[in-house]
Specification:
- The structure is a single chain.
- This protein has helices at 59-66, 101-107, 112-131, 189-204, 210-215, 220-226, 229-233, 241-250, 262-270, 328-343, and strands at 11-12, 15-24, 27-34, 39-47, 75-83, 86-93, 134-135, 144-147, 150-153, 160-161, 165-166, 185-186, 277-282, 285-289, 296-302, 307-313, 316-317, 323-325.
- It is α+β, with helices and mostly antiparallel strands.
- Strand 16 (307-313) and strand 17 (316-317) form a beta hairpin.
- Helix 3 packs antiparallel against helix 9.
- The longest helix is centred in the middle third of the chain and has 20 residues, at 112-131.
Amino acid sequence: MDIECDYSGEEVGKYKLLSKLGNGGFGAVYKAEDRVLHVEKAIKIIEVSDPRKAYELFNEAAIPYECQHNNIIRINSGELLTFNSEDVFIVDMELVNGNSIECLLKERFVPISESIHYIKAILFAVEFSHLKGIIHRDIKPANILLDNGTPKLSDFGLSTTLGNLIVPWRWYRTHAAPETFVDYSIATVETDIFALGMTMFRMVNNISNWRFFLQNIPNFERYIRNGTLIEKIQFEPYIPKKLQRIIRKACNPLPEKRYHSASELRNSLEKIHFLYNWYKLDRYHWQGKSTSLPDKDIYLEVKSRSINVIVKNNGRCSSKDTKKFNNIVDAENYFFEYIRESTLQ
């Protein structure tokens, strides 16, 4: 079986494959009809390269089955079947009504407050799995699915037991903590915390095409291995300093200097209170929404002798906040400082 191919329309056991949802964790995921129960599900099809070791694939279903949580994709069953004369392992999963965070970032600008809302929910899921002794090892925007707006952690294909020795390459490499690149690496809570920090970094910076983004960084593999990738990339100028500090701590190259539990990281995020949700219309035109304060508009206006940063409250120009500048650098600095400083209370 070639997981890159699309087998929509074919049948695997009791399942009719309706449409391909994507690839991940050494298998392909399909929307499928369960012809016995007459319901639609998501199923993951995994190649069985060695039938004598097929039992090892049971963890693909057994580990997440142990983690029954509202913010974790529900696993219904796992079984060995034959598909196109080949042995495959089928993971029967909950079908979500929505897309991944990765897809969301490609569709539109995601305000910081929305990203943090999703991350806090996922931290409950990660905390629950850690209490069960399970380390995910593959936390990334593509593995956070939105089910009618509820974020759910998916794809435990790389997961392992807390404290296990692991093969260095069996991590999602661009989110892997630096200590995981050495031999005899051990699965720890802090390694998942690092991946959560990298996920949060991508979300608040609205990086929509991660692979292409990295390809434009010379020798990016070196920054991944020494844990300094976010320092190389840097934060977008609209991101509040308090949130930058939280993400930097989660992604500290030294595991002893990171957060030591998902709840500790979540508690830090709970202390953040948003004043304005800022929406990017284009680079130099943003709108701010607040539940208790006037709506804001901020944009650049280029004049013959000056560059003006215009701030409006409910459509009326704010003389206090509107400023004139002689150059684009100073105008930009004020523009993004205004957004950054008005995001949090």
